[in-house]
Specification:
single chain; 134 residues
Length: 134
């Protein structure tokens, strides 16, 4: 019939896990690049005058570099299906989602896209269950 078989959703979710690894890997690399550009020139991003969450863009650049490095390592771990990477991946995606919320006034479109990708990563990493041998 038209119902979903057991193989189809698990393949979808397993593919989502690989996608999550790639998203964390690429997102981490982009965070590193954004961080380097913030460190190199504090004036590269537009200053927002009345934004509630104001911060020093150079300090934020260092945060992005560190978070980006952890995300790259986590993404590589997910591509090798490491359990530690799955746990760290959920944490990193949550952290990235919050960071992109704070980044909204600086680059709103990219921040919204990143928030959506982070939500996908959280779903993919929490929905996938690797069968364990008894």
């Amino acid at each position: 019939g038209g119902g979903a078989g057991e193989g189809r959703p698990s393949a979808w979710v397993a593919g989502g896990t690989v996608f999550a690894g790639v998203v964390l890997l690429v997102g981490g690399l982009l965070d590193i690049l954004k961080g380097i550009s913030s460190i190199a020139s504090d004036t590269i991003y537009t200053r927002i005058g009345d934004y509630v969450y104001r911060f020093n863009l150079t300090a934020w650049g260092w945060v992005l570099v560190v978070v980006g490095l952890i995300a790259v390592i986590t993404g590589l771990g997910l591509l090798t299906d490491a359990l530690w990477a799955r746990v760290l991946g959920v944490f990193m995606a949550c952290l990235s989602l919050i960071a992109n919320f704070l980044w909204l006034p600086y680059q709103p479109l990219w921040a919204l896209i990143s928030i959506g990708l982070d939500a996908w990563v959280i779903w993919a990493l929490t929905a996938h269950r690797t069968p364990r041998a008894l």
